[in-house]
Amino acid sequence: MRTTVNGVQIAFTDEGPHGVAPILLVHGFPLSRGAWSRQVEAFGGSRRVIAPDLRGFGESEASPDAGPTSMFRFAEDLRALLLDLEVDSVILVGHSMGGYVAIAFAKAYPELLKGLVLVGTRAGADTPEAATGRRATAEKIKTEGTVGLVTGMVPKMLAPGNNDAAMIESVRALMAPSTPAGVIGALLGMADRPDARESLSQIKVPTLVIAGTEDTLIPFSESEEMTKAIPGADLRLISGAGHLVAFERAEAFNAALRDWLVTRSET
Ligand code: MLT
To answer: Which of 57, 157, 190 is the best mutation target for the ligand 1 pocket, counting ligand atoms within 8 Å of the beta carbon and taking the most?
Structure first.
């Protein structure tokens, strides 16, 4: 499905019966909504599941203006999408960059949240070195396109030693449609993003933090720290999973999310 929010056309999946609070699934960088295909399949039979392509990724249009796409801008798009779909509140699930967006959303629009699930992500800002690296990558993409970035990132999404050729190809396919403008905007936006650790203590909704024990991009110690900082948050570590935990170890991830939905979230 498609709709226009804040001046850009956004593609999204919207499946499942209405009734309890929908799950809103927000993908990471430089991915697309297909990263949640195994969750749409697992949960869409029993509740509404909404999964957008963030602007500039997947089938969604990029920002018309060059420059950084802030995590708040992505969060504003999510809010506009929910308004468009007449959804009052959601359980927001954000992976990695989608987690940065989810934390920005929780700060800006707490009234729209029923629950929060932070997956393979962190609340802190980039180090100065990491931010410089992102800006250099953005410059390179202007002339070389995204192929080099995608090729470099595919193996980092999975646990070291995961040589499942079909899965590797699927991960590449999730990244392939990302537009250079979308990737550049997100890189610059991530480089600029503020340290959000202070805001974690203000989160008032049931929260689940999930990470793979073999995540080489964002170590699971970040998840342990976020769990301590968010009042009442639960932590589930998925053993043997890398960064793209919900895709790589979908069954274990879905079981953790399902258990938490039953026991902790209020819907
Ligand atoms: C992601 O998966 O969204 C990225 O690895 C996040 C990042 O680069 O910080």
So the answer is: 190
Q: Which distant-in-sequence residues (6+ apart) come within 8 Å of 35 by Cβ?
A: 27, 28, 95, 174, 244, 246, 247
Low-confidence ranges of the chain (pLDDT < 50): 267
Q: Is the CB of 97 under 6 A from ligand 1?
A: yes
Residue 156's pLDDT is 96
Q: Which atom of ligand 1 is least distant from the CA of 98?
A: 3
Could you give the 3-state DSSP secondary structure of residue 76? helix
* Nearest one of 126, 125, 127, 115 to 230, comparing CA atoms: 115
Paired tokens of 178: 């990302």
Q: Is the pTM of the predicted complex or chain greater than 0.90?
A: yes
- In this prediction, residue 265 carries a pLDDT of 61
Ligand 1 centroid to Cα of residue 10, in Å, is 21
User: Is the Cβ atom of 36 under 6 angstroms away from ligand 1?
Assistant: no
Is residue 32 within 8 Å of 58, Cβ to Cβ?
Answer: yes
139 contact partners, CB below 8 Å, separation of at least 6 = none
| Helix, strand, coil distribution of the chain in percent, nearest 5 | 45, 15, 35
Q: How far is the CA of 95 from the centre of ligand 1 (A)?
A: 8
Q: Could you identify the atom of ligand 1 that is nearest to the CA of residue 153?
A: 5
* Count of C-beta atoms within a 10 Å radius of residue 40: 20
13-57 pLDDT per residue, tens: 999 999 889 999 999 999 999 999 999 999 999 999 999 999 999
